[in-house]
Amino acid sequence: MHGDSISLWNATIAAGNLARRFLAGDSAAVTLSDLAEGSCLGGRAEELRGRSVLIAATDQFPAALALLELDGIARRVVLCPADLPLDHLPFVIASVPVDAIVSDGTTLGADFPCVGPYVTCSPKIAPASIDRNAPSSTEWILLTSGTTGRPKLVAHTLSSLAGAIEGGDSSGAPRVWSTFYDIRRYGGLQIFLRAMLTGGSLVLSSARESTADFLTRAGAHRVSHISGTPSHWRRALMSPAADSIQPRYVRLSGEIADQAILDNLQSFYPQAKVSHAFASTEAGVAFDVNDGLAGFPSSLIGQVGAVEMQVKDGSLRIRSSRTATDYLGCQAGLLKDTQGFVDTGDMLELCGDRYYFAGRRDGVINVGGQKVHPEEVEAVINRHPHVLMSLVRPRKNPLMGALVVADVVLAKDCAATGNETRGMEHEILQLCRLALPRYKVPAAVKFVSDLAVAASGKIVRGHA
Amino acid sequence: MEMKLTRLSLADTGETAQMSVRAVVVAQLNQIAQEQDKRLAPLVDDLALLDSGLDSLCFAIIVARLEDQLGIDPFSSAEDAGFPVTLGEFIRFYENAR
Fold first, then answer.
1. Does residue A29 sit at the B interface (CB-CB below 8 Å)?
2. Which residues have C-beta within 8 Å of that of residue A125, sequence separation ≥ 6?
3. Do A443 and B73 touch (CB under 8 A)?
4. Which residues have a Cβ under 8 Å from the Cβ of A250 and sit 6 or more positions away?
5. How far is B13 from chain A (nearest CA, A)?
6. Average pLDDT of the segment spanning A125-153
7. Which residues of B touch A395 (CB under 8 A)?
């Protein structure tokens, strides 16, 4: 790795065409050639050489600029998503350990206690020359929300992060990528790297913006390739601005893509290739599914290749050069088993020659000793043509321990009331009764106007 | 047997109706039997719940729905009261909890 490593910026240059490529946030944009002769760090990158740098900015735009500038220079970059609670920072800083801070000047003030320099990152590029020769390999630290609330620190390298990214696109129309994700999370980072490494441009989302405003802006930039979670996409299809983009490629990851959302996206964007991918911060990108069907061919399990997959005790295990290196910090647990496999905690069910994701191991609802994955029930409910999204959750019960109940959001043009709701409830329950054993059928269906989606793009599941 | 009349708010239909606890319980038993495709025994007070034709999942759902409808769950709140064995006890269980 050392000596011959190539930095993100050098790889971005190598992909060519800098003057025609851009990086756009909601209130600022640059062409990549602007970055070649300037710095978002006021020319202070050299002060950060060899340091472990926490990058904490509210907006993704200056954070993206800082990542382009610091990979190959810093020893480590720690990517803080905008919604990371500040009271976790001392834990993060001690675990890495961090010895420099890059911030936008408001997320963390210059007086924030930390050993080492504090450097402001700005969306404005200041003229500066940066020594990009002899880059060293920078470790990328991603934060995932642990179940106990404290984030887990997951260590990657540029090569593990970019392992699934195939060579540039020299032919055809230029690609303009975008993602509903924050690029400081694994799913968003994949799109940032894809855009930079394969000669594309990138439109960043903004936490300040509504889905409709983001889609309108993405449309104005002629976004051609766009990714998000199934929850992001259900939100997008709810939006009156869904038709402001005409993507050639639509990608889903981060949650189970059920057949309903795949079909809805394909019919709404008939010109797009709709693809769903399995990836996690720890396990990396495992595979893409491009046949328009939920689940994946069972032949992928046990194959020899760049990614090896196993099913053990019902859950998907992955070994590849794309998995994270390790967790940082004490009491973090083991990331891989002794054979180098990462247990994803995602439970699989084999049906014919295809595996389907049943749900998370830790999300199981126990109905009188029988296990229910909320996601498998949601997938059935979502088949109803008037259902936009649903959340299945446990309801405490004195006789069975728990029962399964469902919150359902109907598509915008059928806000049913009174008798119509009754009819809809009956139809949804009929669907469930035909497809599921009795204990998995919701005991109650509640129609709600919306469901909470976390900053990670995943539907918010209360803990049982 | 004395019928206790209670004013109930049926939240899901928006109507407010006068209905006894007994009538509410009996209506739920009939509805669940229909939904779950179960054959319900004649509903008399000394019918043992285990012989009613409904299983524990059915009763779990009934208890949840009665909590929504009546606002009470005597199974969770009155632990010393002893579990009802017959339908009559089951109904009194709810009547006494109000």
1. no
2. A30, A34, A35, A38, A39, A40, A65
3. no
4. A226, A227, A233, A265, A269, A272, A273, A274, A275
5. 6
6. 87
7. 64
Angle at A30 between CA A170 and CA A4, to 5 degrees: 55
Q: What is the pLDDT of residue A115?
A: 82
Right CATH number for A8-349 from 3.40.50.12780, 3.40.640.10, 3.40.50.300, 3.90.600.10? 3.40.50.12780
B77 min Cα distance to partner chain A (Å): 10
Here the ipTM equals 0.80
What is the pLDDT, as a whole number, of residue A463?
A: 52
Structure tokens belonging to residue A91: 């834990």
Q: Where are the domain boundaries for CATH 3.40.50.12780 in chain A?
A: 8-349
Shortest CA gap B28–chain A (Å): 13
Indicate yes or no: CB of B60 within 8 angstroms of CB of A403: yes
Residue owning tokens 């599941």 = A461
CA A454 to chain centre: 11
From the list A432, A439, A436, the residue with the least C-alpha distance to A402 is A439
pTM over 0.80: yes
Dump the DSSP string for A167-182: ----SSSPPEEEESS-
Cα distance between residue A63 and residue A65, in whole Å: 5
The DSSP-derived string for chain B is -PPPEEEEEETTTTEEEEEEHHHHHHHHHHHHHHHTT-PPPP--TT-BGGGSS--HHHHHHHHHHHHHHHS--HHHH-GGG----BHHHHHHHHHHH-
B60 interaction partners in chain A (CB closer than 8 Å) = 368, 397, 399-400, 403, 443
Shortest distance, CA B45 to any CA of chain A (angstroms): 21
pLDDT of the residue at B15 = 39
Residues of chain A within CATH 3.30.300.30 domain(s) are 364-447
Residue type, A52: S
Segment A25-53, tens digit of pLDDT: 999 999 999 999 899 999 999 999 999 99
Q: What is the spatial distance between Cα A354 and Cα A90, in angstroms, rounded to a whole number?
A: 45
Does domain A364-447 sit in CATH 3.40.640.10?
no
Task: Please report, as a single letter, which amino acid is at residue A454.
Answer: A
Query: B56, A367: Cβ pair inside 8 Å?
Result: no
Per residue in B44-79, pLDDT tens? 999 999 999 999 999 999 999 999 999 998 888 766
Give the separation between CA A27 and CA A123, rounded to whole angstroms: 9
* Residue ranges of B 5-64 with Cβ closer than 8 A to chain A: 13-14, 35-36, 56-57, 59-61, 63-64
> Going from the N-terminus, what domains does chain B have, and what CATH number goes with each?
5-97 (1.10.1200)
pLDDT for A132 equals 87
d(CA A134, CA A271): 44
Q: Is the pLDDT of residue A172 over 80?
A: no
A residues 316-375 closer than 8 Å to B (CB): 367-368
Contacts of A259 (CB under 8 A, 6+ apart): A293, A294, A379, A383
